[in-house]
Write the structure tokens for this entry.
Amino acid sequence: MPKVKVNDINMNYDKQGSGEPLILIPYTSADYACYAFQTPEYSKYFTCYSVDLRGAGETDKPEGDYSTEQYADDIAGFMQAVGIGHAHIMGVSLGAAIGMQIAAKYPDKVKSLSLHSGWTKTDPFLRTVVEGWQFAAKAMGNVAEMVIKYIFPWCFTPELYAAKPDHIKALSDFVRGRPVQPVDALIRQTNGVLSHDCESQLNRIKAPTLITFGKYDMITSTRFANVMKSNIKNSELVVFEGCAHAGLYEKIEEFNQRTLEFLKRHSG
């Protein structure tokens, strides 16, 4: 995969397709390949740039504090490095938090914004869950196994585990097969999750925005929907039935159809 120099790091990314640029931002601990079920469809209409964030994948993992604001600066720097003036921005979970920061700080760079399973400001419940992940990662010494045992149950409904065990196994094998994230890098990344607060900046977002949640998501539940929908002026809200935190894996066809319809409507 190609790499470019962005701020103080070398950033790894994947590029597929043709058309207007679409930047896909991963969630916590994931690399660019987390959009494997989406890029084959999106790349028929858009040039998809899927990135490895600071601290994950094959991008550099420097010491120091990470934050969603810093990640936004990294994405803006990436756009400059590869010659993108403005782009469609999409993120899931941590990626959505970063997307908010980009659209608020760099509004001229964002043509449309897609925020999936996002949150505006880390609250006590989310803090408790993420601190539990940190504790488990340190105890296990293996980020991939921690993700499968401690993060997956927050991402998928019990019904998916019961009905499609082979799908859960395939996703588990996928996680185990990706580049290893060191525990200390995960801790820095999740500290960025814990410090996220974009609530007062939402009214600076000008791009048309798609906001989605899973109906049964607990970690970033629809408790965040009203503040996002009411403060992002040009926004629309979709709640996926039968999904928890990871609609992009639990309802793949519906997720792709709804998100691609929004993207195509705001291209051109």
